[in-house]
Design goal:
Layout (H helix, E strand, L loop, with lengths): L1 H32 L4 H11 L4 H18 L5 E10 L21 E14 L3 H68 L4 H36 L23 H23 L3 E12 L10 E11 L8 H67 L4 H36 L2
Antiparallel strand pairs: 1-2, 2-3, 3-4
Helix pairs in contact: 2-4, 2-5, 3-4, 4-5, 4-6, 4-8, 6-7, 7-8
Amino acid sequence: MHTKTVIDRMKTKMGKMRILWFLIIGITSTSAFGQLSIEDCQQRAKKNYPLIKQHELISISESYSLSNASSGWLPRITLSAKATYQSDVTGIPIKTSFVNIEEMNKDQYQAILEVSQVIYDGGEISKQKKSTRATSEVDQKQLEVDLYAINDRVNNLYFGILLLKEQMKQNKLLQEELQRNYDRVSSYIQSGIANQSDLDAVKVNQLNTAQRQTELKSVCDAYLSMLSVFVGEKMEEDDLQKPQIKEGLLSINRPELSLIDARINQLKVQEEMIGARNLPKIGAFVQGGYGNPGLNMLKNEFVPYYVAGMRFSWSFNGLYTRKNEHNLARTGRLRLENQKEIFLFNTGLQLTLQSNEQKKLQSLIVDDDEIIRLRENIRTSSEVKVQNGTLSVTDLLRDLTLEDQARQSRLLHEIQLLKTVYDIKYTTNN
């Protein structure tokens, strides 16, 4: 009995530990996955953007067009009917007492049902299906280009929020420092080192700093609202994860290049269709008819009949424009290849400027760290001088403002560096 009780107690403890373990995992998972990276925002923005629905619509349109093209191999059924009255008919000028050939009716009637089947079309149906796929590919690549532009808009909002967030943090630190100075100056007044105007000067700086915080908060909320619309969910300041600097490849892999290649391929397929249209066509047909007269013109009554055979057709009209059509397609390809060269050239220039900007910002951040260190020393020294009565509170506030400006400059350069790195990623698509 005692052993059973011990076992039950152990099971109870294990159950409680298991629940505690699940809670720990849940809390850890929430903290680990609570923030969104810039890549997460880009993906969610693309999925939430209404243009994404075009992907499915393009695929549906392609399937319909391919189905229509494939139907070219199905038998064609045609039903026609006519009734005519003619001023004269064919007659046989033989009249004897032994032979009586009736004159044909001037009103004639005919109904024909024809079934035809393509046997050889010169590859036109195949090229038409290939052209449909090429056109669909161009549409998909154009859609990718349009969606890719969303990344740049998300980047601007994302890094704008990060910069404002860091500026608000620094502003709060400045407010805390100003509050400490306010308390010091208050004590200095009691000691006779400072006067009320010095305390008022600190208070003015406090109010200005509080106003600045309100402005930063308002702009940050506006940016968050716009990013929330893009992403499709409510975003807060702490939801965004500050990215790390990762050096990427400098090879250009933009979707615009794939779009140009798809258009070049589309023109190649159009050239193939030019040749297919100018080849001969062969088909088989069967006609079933009912009319008066039938195939026997001399039989003046309604009769059924049929005709079966082969058709051969070759239109030479396209040969007149074939050379010009090929030249137009070839010229179009050359223009597209030139556009590709221009895009690579301009993108290369932009990449060079961004790489130089990255190096400049990295150098500025090194200087910023040294400036902050020196400004902090100057401000600390000024606080001691104010305490000793050898420096005015106004001079201390000036040094405090200069230190804050140095820290703000460091924050600005850091966020600018991160954004430049992602601008390079956007320019190269790597």
